[in-house]
Write a structure and sequence with these properties.
There is one protein chain. This protein is α/β, with parallel strands linked by helices and 297 residues long. The strands form 4 sheets. Strands 4-3-5-12-6 form a 5-stranded mixed sheet, covered by helices on one side. Helix 2 crosses helix 3, helix 2 packs across helix 4 and helix 2 packs across helix 5. The longest helix is centred in the first third of the chain and has 21 residues. The relative contact order is 0.13. GO terms for molecular function: DNA binding; DNA-binding transcription factor activity.
Length: 297
């Protein structure tokens, strides 16, 4: 380690060329240095390694045993260093063998991950994708630690420390089973409030949400009889009962067991976006993944 601290890249490059040429003059020409400069480098190298490295010979210089031992490891180390500092090569998804991680709720899974999946498998067949639970309060820390490549979350209240790219704006609609007697026509506000509602509470157990805020603004309230943490259960509940729900329009679009009508009041929607940290911002593979997801929604 002490020897390593005394070395610099220029000394190692000089040694590599000297071991190839066995001649100070030719080495100087290849390195684009003066002969005295190369001689100074050689003197420093001899001192660091405690070995003459190159000895005078009848036709130039001949390497010592120590120099022969250094030749291959030094060449391999310099080639590895050159690869490490080389400019990033263009990303080819067809040849990629990466494992990506996307942090999302079941809503993000259904509306963003699922539409992108087919194209991802077709264009990057050697890659793998892991979807992990979204923890909004830990997004910045997880991004810094590389625990996800992308997080799918709403832009409102998002941490400013992360890069973000908006994907779409979502609105709420009223959904229930096909043939629901209360959804033959868009309900009035009074009819809407009389229906039995199910809602998603990400924190668990909540019976108040964005819709209730909008109702309270006009002096009304609804009857929420079921609260669940995930959208998947809501879809099954709606299809098999007379409960209704205010749901994001993309989630129920084209669902064969549900019918959708406009609610009798304006409920604020939200903007959905992808988020990522600085550590992967310029990575060609990461850029490709971001573009692919953005083009799929």
């Amino acid at each position: 380690m002490n020897n390593l601290r005394r070395l610099d890249i220029n000394l190692l490059l000089t040694l590599d060329v000297l071991l190839a040429e066995h001649n100070v003059t030719r080495a100087a020409q290849r390195l684009n240095l003066s002969q005295p400069s190369v001689s100074v480098h050689l003197a420093k190298l001899r001192d660091i390694f405690g070995d003459p490295l190159l000895l005078p010979g009848p036709r130039g210089m001949r390497p010592t045993v120590r120099a022969d031992e250094l030749r291959e490891p030094l060449r391999e180390a310099l080639e590895a260093l050159e690869r490490a500092v080389a400019p990033a090569s263009p990303f080819d998804p067809a040849l990629a063998t990466l494992t990506w991680k996307i942090s999302a709720t079941d809503y993000g899974e259904s509306t963003i991950v699922l539409p992108a999946l087919s194209g991802l498998r077709m264009q990057a067949p050697g890659t793998r994708l892991a979807v992990v639970d979204l923890l909004p309060g830990q997004m910045v820390k997880q991004a810094e630690q590389g625990l996800f490549d992308l997080a799918l979350h709403i832009t409102e209240g998002a941490p400013p420390e992360l890069h973000q790219r908006p994907l779409f704006t979502e609105r709420y609609v009223l959904a229930g089973r096909i043939g629901h007697p209360g959804l033959n026509a868009p309900p009035t506000r009074e009819q809407f409030c009389a229906l039995e509602h199910v809602m998603v509470s990400r924190e668990g157990g909540g019976f108040w949400g964005t819709t209730d805020n909008a109702l309270a603004d006009v002096g009304l309230s609804r009857k929420v009889v079921l609260s669940v943490p995930h959208f998947l259960l809501v879809m099954s509940v709606l299809a098999s009962t007379d409960l209704v729900a205010m749901l994001p329009s993309r989630l129920v679009r084209g669902h064969p067991a549900l019918q959708v009508v406009d609610a009798p009041l304006q409920v604020p929607g939200y903007e959905m976006a992808m988020f990522w940290g600085e550590r992967s911002h310029r990575d060609p593979a990461h850029k490709w993944l971001r573009e692919h997801l953005a083009a799929s929604v």
